[in-house]
């Protein structure tokens, strides 16, 4: 009897998961609508991971080209 009630209370309190995106401990509760993620941000990151990553790489390459072009400009003509 006593054992049964203690087990159920432990199950209620000790439910935690690691956020798949940032690894933060996330309480698995009904209030947490983003579970198993810690926040909406982490959920969005995981859902759009492959897409946003591709976009980010493309963007970075674009910026790299731009900064390279600026770097190539002779600055020591002063
Ligand atoms: Zn997170």
Automatic annotation (TrEMBL):
One of its GO terms (biological process) is regulation of DNA-templated transcription. GO terms for molecular function: DNA topoisomerase type II (double strand cut, ATP-hydrolyzing) inhibitor activity; zinc ion binding. Zn(2+) binds at residues 19, 22, 38, 42. It comes from the Bacteria. The keyword Zinc applies. Keywords: Metal-binding, Zinc. Binds 1 zinc ion. Its cofactor is Zn(2+). Belongs to the DNA gyrase inhibitor YacG family. PANTHER family: DNA GYRASE INHIBITOR YACG. Interacts with GyrB. Inhibits all the catalytic activities of DNA gyrase by preventing its interaction with DNA. Acts by binding directly to the C-terminal domain of GyrB, which probably disrupts DNA binding by the gyrase. This is DNA gyrase inhibitor YacG. It comes from Hahella chejuensis (strain KCTC 2396). The lineage of its organism: Bacteria, Pseudomonadati, Pseudomonadota, Gammaproteobacteria, Oceanospirillales. The gene is yacG.
